[in-house]
Design brief:
mainly alpha
Length: 62
């Protein structure tokens, strides 16, 4: 499954009519394929760059 998603991402630049995918879609497919591979390997999904559970907008000055 992950390889199929990756091959779709790679096929976009090679396709003569690349209008079927937006410029951001290949990157999204690569991220999706990596997430699928991680889950198959038994890794717990992680979110990168989020501030869940933190006090967003709180003052940092003492």
């Amino acid at each position: 499954m992950a390889q199929a998603v990756q091959s779709k991402a790679v096929a976009r630049p090679q396709a003569p009519d690349s209008s079927e995918l937006s410029p951001s879609e290949p990157l999204r497919y690569i991220h999706l394929a990596a997430e699928i591979e991680r889950r198959v390997a038994g890794e717990v999904p992680t979110t990168v760059g989020t501030a869940e559970g933190q006090d967003q907008g709180a003052d940092v000055a003492p």
